[in-house]
Amino acid sequence: MFITRHKKIFIGLSITLVVLSCISLFVFGLRVGIDFKGGALDQVVYKDARPAQAGLQASLEELNFGSVLLQPTGDLGYIVKTRHLTDAEHAELLAVLSQGKTDSLTEQSFNSIGPAVGRELTRKAILAVILISIAIICFIAFAFRKVSEPVSSWKYGLIAIVTLFHDVVIPVGLFVLLSHFYGAELDSLFVVAILTILGLSVSDTIVIFDRIRENLHHQTSAKINFSEIVGKSLEQSFVRSIGTSLTVILVLLALFFFGPVTTKYFALMLTAGMFFGTYSSIFLASPLLVLIGERQSRKK
Amino acid sequence: MIKKVILALVVLALGAGIGLFVYKSEPRLNKNYEAESAFFKNHPFRLGLDLSGGSHLVYDADVSAVPAGEVNDSMSALRDVIERRINLFGVSEPVVQVQHSSVVSGAGEQLIVDLPGVTDVKKAIEMIGQTPSLEFKTEAPEGTPIKVKANPDGTVDLGSLNLTEPQYMSTGLTGRYLKRATLEFDPTTRVPMVSLQFNDEGTKLFAQITKENIGKTVAIYLDGAAISTPNVQEEIPDGQAVISGNFTPEEAKTLVGRLNSGALPVPITLLSTQTIGATLGDSAVRAGVKAAIIGFFFVVLFLVLWYRLPGLVASVALLIFISIILALFKLLPVTLTAAGIAGFIISIGIAVDANVLIFERIKEEMRSGKSIAEATQVGFSRAWFSIRDSNISNFITAVILFWFGTSLIKGFALTLGMGVLVSLFSAITITRIFLRTLSFMGEGKVARFLFTSGIHSGVGKSPQ
């Protein structure tokens, strides 16, 4: 199997991608959305023509709401981002946007999230990530409790976790780029995407490891060539792996291209996660397993 | 054999029935929707605020003055009051939830209010914050300047000038001093009246007012308008008053409810508001439906091209899967959000995953020389463990997300979790029943062609 033979190339490729993602995360950083830090987002659409951005920006500054961000959206709309606004401040903002009611506009959405709610959501998100990670690690440990020869079961688990890390970090890196160049913001859907990737990715790795376990079990000859068994298991399951992730990616792409605006980045993140989840279970998890197996047999 | 065929037909008929239910109960699909029975009309899709438009408000309740043991009680009292206030305004299906402080949510006691269809957030906030203002006013002494409204252009609005009615001034006796209000009917005329009972302080005030105004009128103002101006005959020391405005029984009942809902048991402050306009939600729904249909079409195309006959079977099973899920969305009901639709669309992909696992196994067993019937049998039992394992992790994620999430995340977790469960069911029962039925096709070349895929993994390795 060429994948197990050229394992170092694939492992190297994965390491490069992970490192690049980490670098981009530290260099560009993530733009945190109002979900987590609190703030207000007002989306309005003007009936006939929208006022000039510079003029509107200047009159918005006079409201003393701190920094006000004014972004054009569509042909006739603006998105205004400010700190958390009270009801009265919201009315003031609308008055300025409609320029004393001379420009008729409709407010498409208004979100104002207090800092306390943002903090609460942050705490919830962190807890959810920790809990899901623990649950999945427990599940991995449980799934591989019976494999022990020639590589002990906790090493399968460890590799599954390394793969998970890989599958999450690369989409995050992608999101950092989206955030930097297209203004995507870290919101609660981002966290959901990460957690869903965890679930989708581990399932793919498990199916392949399952196959290895089964083939090891059926092995009758005394001398086990671990690398060959892994290669054989990969051969048996990679069509299936690609087949399933292709269907999921197909629906995700449909969601990205045709779905609601709110879930666009979400769909893209999941597509990346699904792609790398499948890639990693074939081109990373199994080569790593062979690498560990070979190290062990050399030591003996 | 006949048993198998009948079973398959029954499953098909059930699936079609569920599909018909979804179709009939959906006004956008069914042209004769108005003519359908109430059963169908009672089960529309329930759309979340981000899709239907509406307001989502989060209030912080200040429970610092409430003894520790009574926090839960006062929070549910608060919820009841707010719920009553909202119901009076006729919002359909409002959701008022208490979120207690905990390790998870951290922050204090909160009240979450969802108002579908209310996009005027200012009105919504007023609606909730509003206590009906009940005020007793007495006649102002002669010579009090008459108030008139000014027109926007500065002239006097003569319409607001009312010289016939006496002027009234505040007495300080308001709804705050109200102990309770009850609905009564005049024993002789059967006209509905609202009877008020003041608390101790209010009783004293009322006694004083009535004492000082014998022979004059006292005006009862509700929300800034005089609804009744009775003549005071004598001092009323027991704190009982009756408002006999020209109420319909319904109005009187509403007023009693509003007066009793009165002041909030704990003070609240608005933490955050989210409002989504109806147009934005509508386009999100349309886009979501479009994405789901196109996604489904892609998947069917892939399944049929790649897996041929089993792929077609899987597509039918997938259609039944989708009908079941949609019917569950309607019947439970599940509140659908944009994220929820995303979860549902992803679950379509996951549902296929189980089928793909089974088909790959069947193909493999066929390559090792088994007959189609045997291969189907063995393929199913071998694939089951992989299907189970690969779904557990998704299910774990869905459950934890549901447990934690805000309404947005909950919507996603719920649809994904339901999708995983129903897909397990559909893969191991529906697909299996159909595939077993198809084994009548025998072992001919055509049958074998239909059961294998165009691309053989590991070409030349099959022992056939």
Automatic annotation (TrEMBL), chain A:
Q: InterPro entries this protein is in? A: SecD/SecF_arch_bac, SecD/SecF_bac, SecD_SecF_C, SecF_bac, SSD
Its predominant location is: membrane
Q: Does the keyword Zinc apply?
A: no
**GO cellular-component terms in the record?**
plasma membrane
Report the domain of life of the source organism: Bacteria
Topology in the lipid bilayer is annotated as: Multi-pass membrane protein
An example of a GO molecular function for this protein is:
protein-transporting ATPase activity
Q: Where is the SSD domain?
A: 125-291
TM stretches of this protein = 9-30, 125-144, 156-182, 188-209, 238-259, 265-292
Task performed by this protein:
Part of the Sec protein translocase complex. Interacts with the SecYEG preprotein conducting channel. SecDF uses the proton motive force (PMF) to complete protein translocation after the ATP-dependent function of SecA.
Question: What NCBIfam families does the annotation carry?
Answer: transloc_SecF
UniProt name for this protein: Protein-export membrane protein SecF
TrEMBL record, chain B:
GO-annotated biological processes: intracellular protein transmembrane transport; protein targeting; protein transport by the Sec complex
State any GO CC term. plasma membrane
Q: Where is the SecDF P1 head subdomain domain?
A: 171-266
Instruction: Tell me the ranges covered by the Protein export membrane protein SecD/SecF C-terminal domain, including all copies.
Output: 270-437
The alphabetized UniProt keywords are: Cell membrane, Membrane, Protein transport, Translocation, Transmembrane, Transmembrane helix, Transport
**Major place of localization?**
membrane
Q: Does the keyword Mitochondrion apply?
A: no
> Which compartment or compartments is the protein found in?
Cell membrane
User: What is the protein's quaternary organization?
Assistant: Forms a complex with SecF. Part of the essential Sec protein translocation apparatus which comprises SecA, SecYEG and auxiliary proteins SecDF. Other proteins may also be involved.
Query: Could you tell me what this protein does?
Result: Part of the Sec protein translocase complex. Interacts with the SecYEG preprotein conducting channel. SecDF uses the proton motive force (PMF) to complete protein translocation after the ATP-dependent function of SecA.
Stated name of the protein: Protein translocase subunit SecD
Provide the gene name from the record: secD
